[in-house]
Each structure stands twice: as C-alpha cells, then as structure tokens.
Amino acid sequence: MKRITFYLDFISPYAWLAFERLPEVLEGLTYSVTYQSVLLGALLQQHGNPGPAGIAPKRDWTYRHVTWLGHAQGTPLQMPARHPFNPLPLLRQALACSDDGSINRYVAGTVLRHVWQGGADALDPARLATLAEALAEQVRPGQDVNSDGPKALLRANTEAAQAAGVFGVPAFGVDGKLFWGLDGLPMLRAYLDGDAWFDGPAWDAVSQLPSGLPGKP
Prior knowledge:
Protein name: 2-hydroxychromene-2-carboxylate isomerase
Distance between the termini: 38 Å
EC number: 5.99.1.4
CATH topology: Glutaredoxin
GO molecular function, one term: 2-hydroxychromene-2-carboxylate isomerase activity
Keywords: Isomerase
CATH architecture: 3-Layer(aba) Sandwich
Structural class: alpha+beta
Number of helices: 9
CATH class: Alpha Beta
Radius of gyration: 18 Å
Helix content: 40-55%
Oligomer: single chain
Strand order of the largest sheet: 3-2-1-4-5
InterPro entries: DSBA-like_thioredoxin_dom, GST_Kappa/NadH, HCCAis_GSTk, NahD-like, Thioredoxin-like_sf
Largest sheet: 5 strands, mixed
Strand content: 5-15%
Number of strands: 5
C-alpha cells in the first residue's frame, strides 16, 4: 500500500480543492494519506516567493480562478471575507488534535470548510469558538491551541516539508517523489498506477537542465 503525505495550509484554496478531489482521483487504488499542516508563508519566504496574493493582478486572477474551479469540479468554494489572513490560529487548532504532527481527514476537512464555505471571516472570534467546539473531541490530551505543543508541531512539520523540497501547497509526497498542486493530481495518479514514464530518465533529468539567465545555476 502506498503512503501519501498531503502537505496543506488552510489558507490555500487549492488545498481545499485538492482535498475534495483526491478521493475521486485515486478511486480504485489502495493507499493511505497522512495530512500534514504546514505554514505556507514560511515555505514561500524560503524561496523569496511573494505568493499569488503579493502581486495584485495575480491575486485577482487567483481568486477568480479558484472560484471557477470550485464551480467546475462541483466543490463549494466561496472566498472568505478577508484573504490573505494569518492562518496560525487555524493551524494550531488543527495540531491541537495531533500527537505527532499529522491530522486526520475529519480535522483537515472541518478546518478547510470553516475557511472555504460560506464566505465568512475565517478569524472571526465567534466562528473560531464554534470551530474549537466542533473539534473538541479530537483534541489530544495535554494539547491546547494556545499551548506550546501545537506550535512545536507546526514548526517541525514546516521544517520537515522544507527539507523534503516542498515549496508550496497542496503538495503530495510518496516514495521520495513530490507532486505539487491541484493540477498535479493526475500525475500522482499515473505514478501510483505504475506508469512506465516514471521508470525512465525524465523525472531526474530536469534538475540537471542549466538556466539560460545570467547568475542562475
């Protein structure tokens, strides 16, 4: 059985779309998924990437695009009242439900729906209280959203993701290979199906391709 690590940050609409799409894409396969919440901002900062929201025209396009993608794939998606926002309260709430940094699908889905369904403010205090109540039975003994435990797990998850080469979310790790983005799901499926392309040189060859820009390796 293949074991997939799903790296996500709840601030990402593509993570929500991929979360909903994954079971359909992998239908008929035997696999397990470990959900690892990470801090997207730290991944972007590592590579000097401002992210889509850091470029005004790209921000508009991204929000327009994901809203249409939700419509096209039948996944309810409404932009929250404010975006981007600080996802730390949501990440820590999710990781209060974990002993080892992984969260189950129920926890991941509950937090993602909190953000991406209804169009409300993801950080509204009353809504955060309702979210905490919905996850209360999932919280691990000794963990609390404001304790050091979830903070340490988030730091460890993010550092492990960086070490694995994760540069954005959603990302999917399996057998030492990394598949990025909602549009990477068909490629992930092909790999799990045993597509012979992955036995050839193309996967590794691209990393040896030199850049034609001055000062770039």
